[in-house]
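Look over both lines:
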Amino acid sequence: MLIDLTLAIDRKSADGQPLRNLGHLGTHFDVMDKEFPLHYVRRVGRLVDIRGVRDREIEVADLPSEIHSDEFVIFRTNYIEEIGYGGKTYNFTSAELSDALVAHLVTRPVSLIGVDAASIQRRDKHRQVDEYCAARNVFVVENLTNLECLSLAAGREPFVVYCLPLNFRGLTGLPCRVVADVSR
């Protein structure tokens, strides 16, 4: 049995002032007001390197064939390393996963989709894709980092990923800690 011992924090701080955009700072889940399943904190992870695809959307054919249900699929774009976190350029740069690829991952179903960018789709589709995924209990994790180190350590092999969101309520995003375990 899993028991969450984390104090839940609401939208307002203790002094009654609103917490502005707290859920979408740094590495976070886009939960879109859904409950994050506690059993998702430990998943098998797969790294998909899409750094070389800049002139088109990422399609189902770009995925390795070994992706399975309940996995955490992480897309490496290198945007966070190339552009740097935050700012207008970064916030408008995304991984550009096609609608067909997102639907494929959701119907598989994977548990989590991660990216080292501001979103898995263009900015004008960001909220829509996050809501689509969350409604189907697949959550998007944005602003991951150190994917080069992960790639060097894991190669094409699966690894274990621990995703630990803060226990906030009433937010569309949850700040989180994501740790990969590549022990063999």
User: Anything to note?
Assistant: Residues 23-181 form a domain with the Glucose Oxidase; domain 1 fold (CATH 3.50.30.50). The mean pLDDT is 86. Residues 26 and 143 are 6 Å apart (CA to CA).
